[in-house]
Amino acid sequence: MSGTTDLPKAPAEASKVALDSAVAQTLNGDAPATSEGGEAASSSDVNAAEYRTVFQDATNFNVKHPLYNSWTLWFDNPSQKGMASARGTKESWGDDMNKVVDFDSVEEFWGLYQNIVPPSELPQKANYYLFKQGVKPAWEDPANTNGGKWSIQLPRDKTRAAIDRLWLFTMLAAIGETLEAPFPDGVPPPSSSPQDELVTGVIMSARANFYRIAIWTRKAEDTEELAAKLLDIGKQFKVNVLGYDIDAKIGAGLTSDVEFQSHKESEKKKGKKTVV
């Protein structure tokens, strides 16, 4: 089981907040703890002296820690690309996309993470999509239609040793809801509805010569207030997830800057981009 002591600021805080909140709820009786079999544990089973988190005992933990949102992991298999055309049927984007699993707790996330192929071992053209439950990783989904994405492209040969860690940090920041915190030291504002949350999902793409990590958002830069919030997401991504200094110039060769582009602008030959 991976620990959190080596995580950068945003993912580490995300894990700590989720754990502390759930443990506090359990000990105060505000939320039922669950046993390793998924059944609610009684107060005699779990108390201040006896609770065991997945970080303390990966097998015999007796407390689950709920995430703020439920999430879905998707994967597309490059070996299936083009099969519809070969069969003489019309192929559309997403035909080869497979839903892997839904999850809504810290424990389920780590169980999933420990049992999937890491990005460094993915074949060319493969993608992982981690999106909030109910949101499909496609432009056509209503949650994404008017949005855009922050992304970075990294050379495959020079990044292979680090890409698994960077993707893990990105996922932790997403499920821990820290990407939308005001930069550099703000706290994520509480949302009254899913429509108030900008981040809809994150994507890991493996290509022949590079990897790309992207953060998809529900909206693009149509007001000054929204543009400022989106800029904070980019800064959190660059500094607290990827580990760059805020003023670092990183775009060169196969390495891109950390840049934002709306989905509509990305359809243009030279669409507008925002760089942090």
From TrEMBL:
Keywords: Initiation factor, Protein biosynthesis, RNA-binding, Translation regulation. The keyword Protein biosynthesis applies. It holds the Pfam family IF4E. The keyword RNA-binding applies. SUPFAM superfamilies: eIF4e-like. GO terms for cellular component: eukaryotic translation initiation factor 4F complex. GO terms for biological process: regulation of translation. Belongs to the eukaryotic initiation factor 4E family. This is Eukaryotic translation initiation factor 4E.
